[in-house]
Amino acid sequence: MTVDLKGRPFLKLLDFAPDENRHLLALAAELKDKKKSGARGRALDGLNIALLFEKPSTRTRCAFTVACIDEGAHPEYLGKGDIQFGKKETVADTARVLGRMFDGVEFRGFSHQTVETLAEYAGVPVWNGLTDDWHPTQFLADVLTMQEEFGDLKGQTLAYAGDGRNNVANSLMVGCAKLGMHCRIVSPEDLFPEPDLVAAVKEIASTTGGSLSVTSSVEDGVRGADAIYADVWASMGEEDLIAERIRILGAYKITEKMMALTGKPGTIFLHCLPAFHNLDTEVSAKNPDIQEVEDAVFEGPQSRVFDQAENRLHTIKAVMVATLGN
Predict the structure, then answer these.
(1) 135-190 confidence digits (pLDDT tens)
(2) Backbone angles phi, psi at 270, to 5 degrees
(3) Pairing state of beta strands 104-108 and 227-230?
C-alpha cells in the first residue's frame, strides 16, 4: 500500500489508519539511521515553520527545532507572550496569518479545539505537539522505542499505570489499537478513561488483533507486560490536585516490585518525561510523595526513558517530512 500524507495535519491518532502509523514509524527509523550516519537531510529545505507554545517544553521544543534544522527548515518559536489567542485576535485569524507566512505550524497548549481550529484555517500542515486531550508525537516515540527493543510491535503488551484520563493514556490506547498491540490502563476507578473512548478503541482493536483492558488491579494490569509506562500524576495546570493525586495514585507508583510482577525479566520501563523520581526538583522537594516512579527503576537497567526522549526527535521529524517534505 502506498502511503501519501502530504498536506495532512497531525492532530490525533484517531485520524490515521494503521498503515499510515506504520509508515511514520518506518520513516522515523530511516531518518534516525540517516542522522546517525552523519548524512544531512534536505526534505524541508527553504521552508519556514512556526512553533506555537502555550505550554513550555523541553523535549517537544528541542525536537521540533532540531528536526527543522536537520532537514533544512527555519523554525520560529512563538511563546504564549508572543501570540494573541483569544486576547486581541481569534485563533482562526491567527491561523490565517501564520498560514500566509509559514509552511507548517506546530502547536503545544491546552485546548485541543485550538489545534483543530489552527488546522482548519491555516491552509498548511498543522502538528499537535500536545494538548489536554492528545499527545500523538509522544506515542510515536514510545512505540519506536519498543520496536527497537522487541522488533515487531504487533502482539506486544504495554501497561500504563497512573492517571488513565490524561492525554498520554488516550494516545497510548488509540495508537496501540491501531498497531495491533495490547494496551492496559492500570488506574484507580476515579481516573478510568472516558467510556466512549474505551468503546471506540475496543472497536478499532477488534479489527487489528489488538486489545484494550482497563483495571484498577496492579497485579492483573502488569502481568506479562513487555513495557510499563508512567506519567506524572498531576499534569501542567493541575498543581492544585497534587495532594489528591498522591492519595489516590500512591498504589500505582512504579517500583522494582511492580516491574517484577510482569513475570518477564525483559520488561522495559517507559516515561514521557519530565519525571519525579527523586527529590531533586522544586516540586518533588516540596511534595516528596509525588514520585510516580522510584529512582531505582528510573535509573535501572530496564529503563529506556532517554532512548524514548531521543526518539521524539526522529518521530517528529518523520511527521514533518511525511506531511510537508519534498
Answers:
(1) 999 999 999 999 999 999 999 999 999 999 999 999 999 999 999 999 999 999 99
(2) -125, 150
(3) unpaired
Q: Which residues are catalytic?
A: 108, 135, 138, 231, 272, 312
Average pLDDT over residues 114-139: 98
Secondary structure (DSSP) of 61-108: HHHHHHHHHHTT-EEEEEETTT--BTTTB-HHHHHHHHHHH-SEEEEE
Distance (Å, rounded) from C-alpha 210 to C-alpha 177? 5
Pairing of strands 227-230, 74-79: unpaired
The span from the CA of 310 to the CA of 224, in Å, is 27
How far, in Å, are 157, 175, 305 from residue 143 at the CA level?
A: 11, 9, 12
Helix residue ranges per DSSP H, the chain: 18-36, 59-70, 91-101, 112-122, 136-150, 167-178, 195-208, 218-222, 242-249, 256-260, 282-286, 295-298, 305-324
Nearest one of 267, 245, 248 to 256, comparing CA atoms = 267
pTM over 0.85: yes
CA distance 317 to 222: 32
Q: How far is CA 207 from CA 50, 111, 169, 176, 178, in A?
A: 37, 30, 21, 12, 9
Angular region, 61: left φ>0, alpha ψ -120 to 50, beta rest: alpha
Which of 109, 19, 124, 108 lies closest to 63, judged by CA? 108
Is 151 within 8 Å of 182 (Cβ atoms)? no
In this structure, which long-range contacts are made by residues 16-20, counting pairs with CB atoms below 8 Å and at least 24 apart in sequence?
16/178, 17/178, 18/178, 18/179, 18/180, 18/208
- Indicate the length of the chain as a whole number: 326
225 vs 43, 61, 191, CA distance in Å? 38, 31, 21
Tens of pLDDT along 183-192? 999 999 999 9
| pLDDT for the residue 326 | 84
Residue 319 in 3-state DSSP?
A: helix
